[in-house]
Amino acid sequence: MTLYVGIDNGLNGGIACLNNNKTAIVWKMPVIKGTKTDYNIREIIKIFKTFKRGKCYVVLEKAHPRAVSGKRACFMTGYGYGLMQGLLSAMDIPYMVVTPQTWQKEIFSGITEKDTKVASIKFCQKMFPNVDLKPTERSKKPHDGISDALCMAEYCFRVNKK
């Protein structure tokens, strides 16, 4: 079985996996809540281990600091990006790095919504109506980190099917 994976590597990101039949599994990025939120590396590894069962393609979103972000946010952006690369490499899972603009150009073709987070959620709700984009059962709104990851998994599917 071939798997197509998208990773939105932010603390508020997500991980999504599609198979050849477009069956999706999604996760909110595992984090440890405390005085400062941090990545739950053990849980991320558990998720990544599920990718080892077959042929796997992974798209990792290229991270870049934004001028409006604070020092901690910029540090965590780079840390999460490097962490994902390190874990994927250590687990011998091949991946490609893609800029947000690259996957968005492919996935949002024909969508007029300017806000990429809203466009991502709308695309996923239309393309994958059976996938719950809410991070928890108690959540009321879809999670844009999960929807971005699912969009990247779809991008990965399209690129690797060509």
Please write out the topology.
Elements: E1 2-8, E2 14-19, E3 24-28, E4 31-32, E5 38-39, H1 41-49, E6 55-61, H2 71-90, E7 95-98, H3 100-107, H4 116-127, H5 144-161
Parallel strand pairs: 1-6, 6-7
Antiparallel strand pairs: 1-2, 2-3, 4-5
CATH architecture: 2-Layer Sandwich
Radius of gyration: 15 Å
Strand content: 15-25%
CATH topology: Nucleotidyltransferase, domain 5
| Global geometry | globular
CATH superfamily: Ribonuclease H-like superfamily/Ribonuclease H
Question: What does it look like?
Answer:
This protein has 162 residues and is α/β, with parallel strands linked by helices. The chain has a single domain, classed as Ribonuclease H-like superfamily/Ribonuclease H (Nucleotidyltransferase, domain 5, 2-Layer Sandwich), CATH 3.30.420.10. It is built from 5 helices and 7 strands; from the N terminus they run E-E-E-E-E-H-E-H-E-H-H-H. The protein has helices at 41-49, 71-90, 100-107, 116-127, 144-161; strands at residues 2-8, 14-19, 24-28, 31-32, 38-39, 55-61, 95-98. The strands form 2 sheets. It has a 5-stranded mixed beta sheet. A two-stranded antiparallel ribbon has the order 4-5. The longest helix has 20 residues, at 71-90.
